[in-house]
Backbone:
């Protein structure tokens, strides 16, 4: 097994490896392969390493810059990390993580790394939870950091905008809410995991009666086009409610 930097011929294999590897991962976003592509296009893929076995890409790790609200610089986000299922359990993921951390620490002079993942696994690489370091899009106990030098920052961490994407199933739910938009909210199955994720992200807000309403300002951060459609729909429906004749037709 060899670990090396990616080249342009690896891009398709990296996407396929990432999709397959994350199929059964409990913390998946369902957009991991798109995140890597967008980081690459934005020239924000600071480190991109592949694990190769007999000429086949079987694993990949990405590293990209993060911002911290206290102004601390030179910190990076580790991930997405992927290994094909048939090659898992062989230590390939661990070797990719160590290689990625080494590149950040020794290759580009990084001061630390953060990631979202299970503490019981990543603690073996030195990652730990620091209460003063916060990522608002996940439970605090799953947000881990590894300082290389200096103090641990104190602030809110944001990953590159490439991570702010909606999965296709999330977009489908958003579109359903737009189509069925009502001033008092749209009735949804609040037990649906996709609906729950959108509520956790703040895109949907739960209302009484098993209803939700859209929050266009939050949706704008994830998908400006859907946010614009939402705003248009809300404006049009507002006009209907204000116009007695249109309201009568609608009823």
Residues:
């Amino acid at each position: 097994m060899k670990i090396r930097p990616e080249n342009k011929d690896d891009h398709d294999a990296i996407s396929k490896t990432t999709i397959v590897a994350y199929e059964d991962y409990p913390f998946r976003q369902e957009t991991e392969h798109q995140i890597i592509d967008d980081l690459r296009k934005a020239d924000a893929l600071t480190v991109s390493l592949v694990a190769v076995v007999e000429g086949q890409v079987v694993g990949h790790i990405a590293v990209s810059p993060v911002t911290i609200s206290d102004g601390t610089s030179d910190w990076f986000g580790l991930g997405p990390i992927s290994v094909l299922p048939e090659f898992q359990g062989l230590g390939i993921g661990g070797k990719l993580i160590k290689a990625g951390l080494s590149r950040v620490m020794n290759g580009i002079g990084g001061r630390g790394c953060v990631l979202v993942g299970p503490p019981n696994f990543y603690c073996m690489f030195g990652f730990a939870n620091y209460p003063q370091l916060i990522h608002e899009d996940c439970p605090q106990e799953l947000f881990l950091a590894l300082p290389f030098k200096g103090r641990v920052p104190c602030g809110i961490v944001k990953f590159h905008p490439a991570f702010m994407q909606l999965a296709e199933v999330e977009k489908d739910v958003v579109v359903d809410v737009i189509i069925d938009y009502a001033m008092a909210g749209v009735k949804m199955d609040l037990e649906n995991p996709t609906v729950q994720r959108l509520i956790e992200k703040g895109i949907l807000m739960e209302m009484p009666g098993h209803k939700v309403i859209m929050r266009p300002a939050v949706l704008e951060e994830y998908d400006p086009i859907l946010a614009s459609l939402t705003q248009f729909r809300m404006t049009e429906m507002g006009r209907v409610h204000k116009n007695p004749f249109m309201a009568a037709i609608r009823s």
